[in-house]
Amino acid sequence: MTSDTRQDTSAVERHFSRRFQVALVGEGALVGLLGGGVVTLYRLSLSYAEKEMRGITGLISGNLLFVALWFLLLVILSICVGRLVKWEPLTSGSGIPQTNAEVIGHLNAPWYRVLPAKFIEGVLVAFGGLSMGREGPSVQLGGMSGKAISKLLHLKRGEEHLLVTCGAAAGMSAAFHAPLTGTLFAVEEIQKEFHAPLIISAMTSSVVADFLVSNVFGMKPVIRLDYVQPLPHIDYVFVLFVGIICGVLGALHNKGMFSLQKAYGKINVCVPYARLIIPFIIAGFVALSAPDLLCGGDALIEKIKEPATLTELSVLALLVGKYAFTTVCFSAGTPGGTLFPLVVMGTLLGTFMGLCVSHLFGIPMAYVPNFVAMGVAGVFASVIRAPVTAVVLVFELTGSLEALAAMTAVSVISYTVANVLRVDPFYDHLLAQLLNALPIHSDTPSDTNRPVGGEKILQEYTLGAGSRIEGMCVKDVPWPDKIRIVTIERAGKELIPTGNTRLQAFDSILVILDEAYEDDVCLKLDLMTRAASDLLHRHPSSRP
Description:
The chain contains 20 helices and four strands. The chain is mainly alpha-helical and about 550 residues long. The protein folds into three domains: about 5-215, Clc chloride channel (Orthogonal Bundle); about 235-435, Clc chloride channel, CATH 1.10.3080; about 455-535, Regulator of K+ conductance, C-terminal domain (Alpha-Beta Plaits, 2-Layer Sandwich). The longest helix has about 45 residues, at about 20-60. It is globular. Mean pLDDT is about 85; it is low at about 440-455 and about 535-544. This is ClC family H(+)/Cl(-) exchange transporter. It comes from Lancefieldella rimae. InterPro entries: Cl-channel_core, ClC, RCK_C, RCK_C_sf. Keywords: Chloride, Ion transport, Membrane, Transmembrane, Transmembrane helix, Transport. It holds the Pfam family Voltage_CLC.
């Protein structure tokens, strides 16, 4: 038996062994402990930094000397953050596209650099008062924690990708106190595949991280939404209205972010310092004039808990201000996320629509919290295009099963409207930008930089409806080099494929490939097996 054959057999046996399935759960728990612990410390540090910042800015108001010193400190903070980004460029931005690229095999980030750099950057950004969230960095911190565990256990690259996904789930869970949301976000947005071993291990990581945050450290949820009894059926026309508005504004949100990113990209001197100093200086003016807009938005959540004391105009002003400030901060490449500011904007939009409907159509003010919850679901679904995660997130934030029908309707409508407007999903666009910036490796046989006969890994692909190879026989498919098809699972049954086996939609194809060729092979297989609907909405600038 040749060395390659022995490696192939070993990889396949490990994939199908029950011991492997159990090991994934244990590894997921380890990732949940480490990722949850890191993210918890990150949250505590950010809360402390924000508290100190608000205390300082509250004291210096009206004293020109102290104000000048504060602006000088903001310049120093921007230089420190810029130096860290220059030291480890993969910490720029939210961290979710980097985690996604890691999972699909296009990045091999140094976890030992990303973890400390991202952590420190987040604390400095929070102390500066910039409108950035903790969830994106939490996903990256969790993902890198998963990678650290995989390195310590000497796992192969395929399992490493699984643990990175588990870490992303743990990070999201610890950030939102929402284990189901963490699991679904990792599967729907990061991995983009649904299969049992992944879901079970990701869920284990999420639950362990949430337990650590809630029961060991005793931290409370960052946001809790109320949901009274469902709207009367006759008023469900307003659910349609909320979905449409959320879809349109979600598309505009993305369009504005992308446009300002292009504008920042024209600053080509002293990068990243010249870009980062802009949001830090603006944060200084915001701290003196509209402190509620600072940081992620916890202060705004508290402000809108009593909607009866607010006017439509004041809520609209807060919404526009929060969006503008967040866009200026994020588009500069500032290390930090947009998910929590996005949720805050969803609550503001929902409050605004609830107040308008109440005053114009006489719906009781008691139903305004329902519109707040619908606003969060609709904005999340339209911006990120993860409607299932949006529904589950609002369910976990409200704790109400009665909310599911309205949340699902709003999410589906807003998701559809945003797609009709042909604006890219937020993180898909950022991922395409990241991939386009990476060097393209040759996949020709003459590429002498790649070892031949290296470690073997297994990858599983589900054949999407209307994909390029649906209906073709195995022998007629232009498979990439360096792979072997192991099995095809169809309707719960495993088939041993032959050349005449005809591929059908939703077939699960297990392939074995050489780790050295993983990036190129996986990209080609992903394109071959994608559903037709996914191909239609791919970003045009992403790689072919």
